[in-house]
Amino acid sequence: MTDTDNETDGEDAPGADSVALDPWGSSTVSDYRKLFEEFGIESFDDVIDEVPDPHYLMRRAIIFGHRDYRRVADAMRNDEPFAALSGFMPTGDPHIGHKMVFDEIIWHQQQGADAYALIADLEAHAARGLTWDEIDEHARDYLLSLLALGFDPEDGTLYRQSANRELQDLAFELGAEANFSEFEAIYGFDGETDVSHMQSVVTQMADILYPQLEESKPTVIPVGPDQDPHMRLARDLAERTRYFKVTEAYASVAFDDDERPLVAAAYDARGEYAEDEDQPRCTEAADWLREDADLAAAYDAEVVESVVQKLENAGMEPLRPRIRFFDRQATDEAFEALIDEVAGEKRVFEGHVDAFDIDRETAEDLALAVEVDHGGYGFVPPSSIYHRFMTGLTGGKMSSSIPASHISLLDDPEDGYDKVKAATTGGRETAEKQRELGGEPDQCPVYELYAYLLAADDDEFAERVYEECAGGERLCGGCKEEAAELMAEFLEDHQEKREEAKEVLADLDVELDSARA
């Protein structure tokens, strides 16, 4: 979840073809499309039309994917509560790669989000071995840049992990829902992994859910794809802490998630096999599924056999849609309150309640309200958006440990100018070939500077640079000169604003010096 040094970028990094996502490792993503298939990340194109006035990082497909962002967009459009949070591991100077995440948090704050930004000092110490003095030095720089770029501290929350007792208490509670085998499977932890490193993961889970401690609400976490393991675990933990699980059901027997679509198909086709279409029997549905070769071929054979067996076990019971509330870990009082709140026809069992006159969305809202009223967290599974990594100025990965590969937000403007002038480009070997064949802006770190930063909100400018490069009108020398001048101007302006932000930071209730130092 924490934005790190962007050290996982670059085509030459180990693991580029395997799409192994390691929040602390050297893996990278050479084909972002594989993330949709292998990890269930959805394309941001599917949701951008639902976002009011989308940020330019969204419009330019730099933000390329999401998990469950639609609920955040809905809250944004309907002026309902939602939150945005990201963390920053202070392992070096903040640089232009980090600016993307700063901008994403600030934009969501401007759209009405409760905005949170944190310094992941416990993670920096446990996972990267930084001393507390080093962490303190870098933490101040991250906060100053965040404020200089427009974060409103009066309307947002800033904290560092080690100084937030409420966060650490939440992490302790979440730790009861996780285990080592899970960490081993997700992160590759083994017998050599420090306990403090594992503890820092649980702390990050608490960070992600922290905006919901006082009020359940959609929460978005902007991250690079290497942080997706954290998001998957956080979503799982949010579900595990809930009092109730709400699912669709069709009979007293329980069907698994991968079985319900097949049962739904059988119910929808009841006119083909049921003696009484208004009251199809489970055994009738089982016989129909066994005989329908086309439908069976569309599903896994084991799933089909399992559904048929369960339907046969249910016998002559009617196949009838209903909403099922499972008692996951509710108190007795909460379970009784839920029963009372379910309107219309219902059937109460030892571990669940079936409701026949309520839709899924209403049921979810009801379960949440009862849980919160009876002392539960009521966490909404957190959403996430995923941005592309910036390529290093020298090609390959951008890393804080390779000064020439990145531009620090603390760099002297003249040094920023020089780094851009020395950057690798996507140009051809000669000016003649560039004019004839055009450049390759999609492979150019300098063009990325325009798209990610220098063109700011001016889409026409970014598109013009792209088209002039691809068409051979723009040569690398002039392009780099323009980019270098814009970068120097940006750094000069940003550093002036950092100076102004020092007074603001001094007045905030944020721990800048660690008590552990």
TrEMBL record:
Q: Where in the cell is it found?
A: Cytoplasm
Catalytic activity field: tRNA(Trp) + L-tryptophan + ATP = L-tryptophyl-tRNA(Trp) + AMP + diphosphate + H(+)
What is a biological process (GO) this protein takes part in? tryptophanyl-tRNA aminoacylation
Motif 'HIGH' region in this chain: where?
Answer: 90-98
Q: Which residues form a coiled coil?
A: 480-511
Q: Which InterPro entries match?
A: aa-tRNA-synth_Ic, Rossmann-like_a/b/a_fold, Trp-tRNA-ligase, Tryptophan-tRNA-ligase_arc
- What Enzyme Commission number(s) apply to this enzyme? 6.1.1.2
Cite the record's Acidic residues compositional bias ranges.
Answer: 1-14
Pfam families xrefs? tRNA-synt_1b (PF00579)
A cellular component term, taken from the record's GO annotations:
cytoplasm
Q: Which GO terms describe its molecular function?
A: ATP binding; tryptophan-tRNA ligase activity
Where is it chiefly localized? cytoplasm
Write out the ranges of the annotated region (Disordered): 1-22
Entry keywords, A to Z = Aminoacyl-tRNA synthetase, ATP-binding, Coiled coil, Cytoplasm, Ligase, Nucleotide-binding, Protein biosynthesis
Q: Where is this motif: 'KMSKS' region?
A: 397-401
At the top of the EC hierarchy, this enzyme's class is ligase
Its function, per the record, reads: Catalyzes the attachment of tryptophan to tRNA(Trp).
What family classification does the UniProt entry report for this protein?
Belongs to the class-I aminoacyl-tRNA synthetase family.
Specify the protein name.
Answer: Tryptophan--tRNA ligase
The uppermost taxa in this organism's lineage are: Archaea, Methanobacteriati, Methanobacteriota, Stenosarchaea group, Halobacteria
